[in-house]
Structure formats: structure tokens, C-alpha cells
Fold this protein.
Amino acid sequence: MSLRWKIAALAAATACLVAAAVGVLVHLWTAQDVRQRAEAQAFNTVYAAMDVYRRTGALTDGAHLDPTDLPSALRHLADGDRHTAYDGRVEGNLGPSIWAAQRVGGPGSRVLAVRVNMSSELHTLRRLDATMAVASLIALAAATPLAVYGAGLLGRRLRRVSETAGRISAGDLDARSGPTKGGDEVADIAATVDLMADSLGRRLCSERQFTADVAHELRTPVGGLLAAVDLLPPGETEDLLRARVRDLRGLVEDLLEISRLDAGAEQPVRAHVPLGAVVSEAVARTGFDAEVTVASAAPAVETDPRRLERIVSNLVVNAHRHGAAPVQVTVEGRTVVVRDRGPGFPPDLLRGGPRRFHTGAKERGSGHGLGLTIALGQARLLGAELHLTNAPDGGAVATLRLPH
């Protein structure tokens, strides 16, 4: 149930509760008023009838002496006492009633009583209850659409903020909620989300600038190291230094590539190429053994072959470096699947995606954590989807789906 309907349901329930409470209070107050007025009428009537009876001996105003249906509470009154009693019996249109009685003094005294029928007043009370119920239903019918409309306005404002937060979490750091009408909590949330996006954007820009600056500054000394290594005499030391300098140069080139991807400075150069052939060549250039299977339905695709080779080679190198043989590469349709038989991707990588300089679990080997980051960035640049999962029977599975 959405927030809109929850608020509408709460408003309807509140309206029903208020209507019920008001109806009960009105009913109780009116019933008490009817009874009090009937008691006052009966009391005054028996007083007047007693006065006439003492003076003339005649019974007036519906008075009776020792009526058979007199409530037992009024049969044993002391001489001169005057009291009232409620009689809830209903006989046709007579009842409930209020009795008022007073004992007549002297030998063989009797009780003079008057009965006031409340049936007409109680009928009016029932009509009032029905009117209150109908009025409550009409008010509920009018209040519910208004509550739905008001809740819809609030829901749309919250949905706008939620969509902005979702776009920010997806990487769109330019997304903003913008000015929000009102000064309520929703406006505060929207302003906070915008401030968070501004702060996050500044930090990421600072990080990207730092990465680019470091890579550019390291490029020159690394080139000097390569030239110096070439001057060393052949031997084990020269081979060791050359391998380390080569690794350092690869790291610098990876950092430069990431900085260009982050800055949006890269643009794909598309061409129609056979997907199977490009993948096979990319696997061969890695120098690692991998079983390449190309389905007969693998089509020619329009993409940037250099970037596609970069993605496939990074996935294959990652599978060998952090996984275990055999590594299988399957091309079917526009999908490329790279699978190894190692321990699989760590849970935090599957949840949050690859992060630079973070390789996950120790059993997946060592590295700089840049291979998958570059592969993901290049895939986004090509408009492709790169999904990382673990196979049920073990091993990491990277699936690249190229767009049509």
C-alpha cells in the first residue's frame, strides 16, 4: 500500500472515529435531557394533581390512585414524600415512561401517581441518531476524496525526492530535487538530498582530479625508469626491474584511463565487427589459456572494437589472477560470458560493484582492483550491461550484454 492510500485510510478512519464519538455524545446528552425533562414534567404534574385532589377530591392531569402498574420503588413512600422512577416497559405506543408519585396522608392513605410517556421523545432521538449517521457518511464521502488528493500531493513530492536520490545513487551527480514548495519536512528532505549531492559531487571531483594528477605526474618518471632499465646489462636483476617497471607503467595507464572515463572525456569509435572474432583475438592477446566458444548465431555488432577488447581482456585476466582454471569464454548472440572455477566474487563486490584499489576476499589473490572498474566504465561507455554473479556450483561469472 502506497503512502497516499495509507494517509487516505488514516484520514477516513479518523473521520469515522470523530463521527462515532460525536454521535455517541449527542445521543447520550439528548437521552439524558429527555429523561430530565420527563422527570421534571412528572414531578410538577403530580404536585399540581395532589393540590387539586386535596382541595376537591378529584383526579386531574392523568393522575391515578394506587395504579396496578406503579413501580415497586414508589409503593412504599412515606407520608408527604414525592419521588420519581423510570419504567422501561413498552406496551404498544406506551413506554418507556417516568412515574411520579406522592402518598396521600390520613387513615388508609393511598399513593397518587402520574405517568409521563417518553415514546415520542425517544422516537425523535432515534430520528436524530439516523440523521447523525447519514450526516457522518456524507462527511466521510466528502473527506475521503480530499484526503486522497492531499495525500497524492504529498506522495508526489516525496516521490520526486526519492527519484532524485535514486538517480544520485545510480551515478547521476547532477540530479537535483530543486526548489520545493512549502516549508515542511518534505522541503527539508529535498534540500538535504540536494546538499548531499553537492557534497558528494565535490568529493568525487576532488578524487577524480587527484587520480588524474597522480597518473600524469607518474607518467614521466615511469618513462625515465623504462629508459634507465634499458641501459642495464642483461641478467636476473634487469629482468626483475623490467617486470616491476612494466607493472608500474600498467598501473599508471590504468589510472589515466579511469580518470578519462570519470571525466567523460572518452568517446567510442564504432564500427561493424564480428563479435566472435574480436573476443577470440582479445583472449589471445592476454597470453592466458582460456576456452573460447563462439555460437554459430554470434552476429556482427556495431561497437568500438578497441574498448570491447579491453573489457574482455580485463575479465579474462581477472579470472586467471583471482579465480582458477579452467576459464571459459562463451559468445552467444550479443552476450559474452567469462567464467572461472575459483572462489567466486566476494559478497561486498556483488552488493556494491567493483571499487578501485579493492580486491575483496584474500583468497581471490592480489591486485589493484582496477581491472573490473575499467571494464565496468568501458561497458557503460558502449551502452552495454556488465553483470557480476557467482555460479551455483562455484566460480565467478561475468556477463557482458551488448546493446542492439
In short: The domain at 204-263 is CATH 1.10.287.130 (Helix Hairpins). The chain has three domains: 3-139, 204-263, 271-401. Residues 363-367 have pLDDT under 50 and may be disordered. The helical segments are 3-56, 119-169, 185-230, 236-263, 275-286, 305-322, 347-352, 371-382.
